[in-house]
Design goal:
The chain contains 18 helices and 20 strands. The protein has helices at 44-51, 85-90, 100-108, 122-134, 152-164, 176-182, 204-235, 241-259, 321-328, 363-368, 384-390, 407-420, 437-449, 461-467, 487-494, 529-556, 561-564, 566-602; strands at 6-13, 21-28, 33-37, 59-64, 70-73, 140-144, 168-172, 185-190, 193-197, 281-292, 295-306, 310-313, 336-341, 347-350, 374-377, 380-383, 425-429, 453-457, 470-476, 479-484. The protein has 5 domains: 6-201, P-loop containing nucleotide triphosphate hydrolases (Rossmann fold, 3-Layer(aba) Sandwich), CATH 3.40.50.300; 207-259; 281-346 and 422-522, Rossmann fold; 357-420, no CATH class; 529-602, Valyl-tRNA synthetase, C-terminal domain (Helix Hairpins), CATH 1.10.287. Helix 3 (100-108) runs antiparallel to helix 4, helix 7 (204-235) packs antiparallel against helix 8 and helix 16 (529-556) packs antiparallel against helix 18 (566-602).
Length: 603
């Protein structure tokens, strides 16, 4: 077995109070692909900075093989004094590195190299930082949320690029599909320690649940043992002093173990405050067109959104996703065509850019608007501390300035503000950014239980597959096409990935042979929202159809019906035939889904 390129041993770090890292061990071998998993605030980014040599731990040892090169991608890159993105990327190259890699990678990532790095968008900054760490072809790549602010086509390009390299990878990401396709081992940072398995992310959640279940059983046994020992202390003390003293010491040890046990962090309690039900028709667009100068953003687009639909909108940065949403929701008028909004619409919006957050305000002020200790949730007052706890904020964070919150905490804060407003239409722009996997699971469940309509802009392929009922994708020159199902269903219908085009010019893609993206089926298959909904509702539908058939059959059982009322006989015969067809189709659909569910559970 090859010696590790980088090794962390007994790493300890405390920022006051509970230790953040306590005895962390991590080994990364040549060409190894490690995904680093953990809750927001568990210390993942800090550990990656320690591995990069940027943070000094309180104790422990960091070892890097002599001569091995390490490159670290932070969540927020520092461009220093560089005037252009090309100068920034070239500054990361050593004398022996291929100088052409800087410009080549920038071009692949949709940048010219002439951009001012201090005035670029979040997505452009992330692409420049990726070029900076990739250009030297390092032995070890430490990547902290590499897919944040990237569009789907760039994520797929990055996935292929990393897969083709021999560099060892340590990746922090909330993108399940990205982790599943790239990782070969998993390091789980949980309550200050790391547990590691030689399997990729696809196996993580099953393994994690097994570990936590075993831990719960161990704690239950410990509790029972303490109860037994306390019963002995009260009722069974014998005259053998030496034995009693030893047993009493053991009881104190058991109590210390229980007292020092750090339980798992709680789960966010996300629930959208729902308004009165909207009309069945939510939005109808006919022949909508919008252009800026000669550039067409939306061209002759039509759609019909009904109550309960979950609509996903995807596409490259700059393709016009936000413009399309603004048109559909009435925030912007089209150049031509019509937008019809349904009755009784109450809209709540989550903006990915988070400009509405005042960095100097406290967490409590951001939730209450600076007005007292109460926040209106669904039209009813709730104490701000109780609402904070629903979104995994501690009471002590009430006075924390927004500017010092982590990316995940700011994401939860934006969700908290958006979900407090009563709504029957949720418009979510990149809601998954910076959220940990557990919070993503809860968000997915909340959207599944939401009775209203959802319009979702996202670059998270797995989240789209789990949540949406249809996907709208750009085809170029302002043309948008709606596909039934999630992201993987869209790919199957299109027969191709999204075209890679720059955000500014939407120039034609270069004519070069590209490797196909990793198939979506490589991720662990899960039932989509449509499939889960169908499994829940089809049995009731079948019962209703059977009851209708029985009722119609009783009408036909009348031997005199044909001669007495020929029209009623014909109508009833047609209705019973149609009901039989619907029942047969429902039974086949339910059987297919039930077999699929069993296959998934057994996989």
């Amino acid at each position: 077995m090859a010696p590790p390129l980088i090794q962390l041993k007994d790493i300890r770090l405390t920022f006051g109070g509970t230790p953040l890292l306590s005895g962390v061990e991590l080994n990364v071998a040549p060409s190894e692909r490690v995904c680093l998993i953990g809750r927001n605030g568990s210390g993942k980014s800090t550990l990656l900075k320690i591995a990069a040599g940027l943070v000094e731990p309180d104790g422990g040892m960091r070892f890097v093989q002599p001569g091995a090169t390490v490159r670290y991608l932070p969540q927020e890159p520092d461009f220093g004094e560089h005037k252009t993105t090309l100068a920034y990327v070239e500054s990361g190259l050593a004398p022996g590195d291929d100088q052409h890699q800087a410009r080549y990678l920038l071009e692949q990532l949709g940048l010219t190299g002439e951009e001012n790095p201090h005035s670029v968008s979040g997505g452009e900054a992330r692409r420049a930082a990726l070029a900076y760490v990739l250009a030297p072809s390092p032995d070890i790549l430490l990547l902290d949320e590499p897919t944040n602010h990237l569009d789907l086509s760039t994520i797929e390009w990055l996935e292929q690029e990393l897969d083709s390299r021999r560099s060892a990878l340590v990746i922090i990401s909330h993108d399940r599909r990205f982790l599943t396709n790239l990782s070969r081992s998993t390091a789980w940072l949980d309550r200050g320690r790391i547990k590691q398995i030689d399997r990729g992310f696809a196996s993580f959640e099953t393994w994690r649940d097994e570990v936590l279940a075993e831990e719960e059983r161990d704690q239950h046994k410990l509790d029972r043992k303490i109860v037994d020992e306390e019963h002995w202390l009260r009722h069974g003390v014998s005259g053998r002093r030496k034995r009693n003293v030893k047993r009493l010491a053991n009881l104190h040890t058991l109590r210390d173990q229980r007292r020092n046990y750090r339980g798992t962090a709680g789960t966010a309690s996300l629930a959208a405050a729902e308004a009165e039900q909207s009309g069945k028709l939510v939005i109808e667009a006919k022949g909508v067109t919008k252009a800026y100068g000669e550039r067409k953003i939306v061209e002759n687009f039509s759609t019909r959104i009904q109550r309960g639909d979950r609509l996903g909108i995807i596409g490259p940065n700059g393709a016009g996703k936000t413009t399309l949403v603004n048109l559909l929701t009435g925030g912007m008028q089209p150049d031509s065509g019509t937008i019809r909004l349904g009755a009784n619409l109450e809209t709540a919006t989550l903006d990915q850019h988070r400009e509405s957050l005042d960095p100097k305000s406290t967490l409590a002020e951001a939730l209450t608007g600076g007005r007292g200790d109460q926040i209106m949730v669904g039209g009813k007052p709730k104490h701000v501390v109780g609402y904070m706890k629903d979104f995994l904020f501690a009471q002590e964070q009430r006075g924390t300035p927004v500017e010092v919150l982590s990316g995940g905490e700011r994401g939860r804060l934006m969700l908290a503000r958006a979900l407090a407003k009563p709504s029957n239409l949720l418009v979510l722009d990149e809601p998954t950014n910076d959220l940990d996997l557990e919070t993503l699971d809860v968000l997915e469940e909340m959207l599944g239980d939401y009775d209203g309509t959802v319009i979702l802009i996202s670059h998270d392929r797995d989240f789209l597959d789990r949540v949406v009922t249809s996907v709208i994708a750009p085809e170029g020159n302002g043309k948008w096409v709606e596909y039934a199902g999630g992201y993987s269903d869209m790919l199957a219908q299109r027969g191709a990935d999204l075209k890679r085009e720059t955000a500014k010019a939407q120039a034609p893609a270069e004519k070069k042979e590209e490797r196909p993206a990793a198939p979506a089926s490589s991720a662990k298959r899960k039932l989509s929202f449509n499939e889960k909904h169908a499994l829940e509702t089809l049995p009731k539908k079948m019962e209703t159809l059977q009851a209708d058939i029985a009722k119609l059959q009783r009408v036909l059982d009348d031997p005199n019906l044909y001669t007495r009322d020929r029209k009623k006989f014909d109508d009833t015969s047609a209705a019973i035939a149609k009901a039989h067809e619907e029942l047969s189709a429902a039974e086949e659909r339910w059987l297919d889904l039930e077999m699929l569910r069993e296959e998934i559970e057994q996989a």
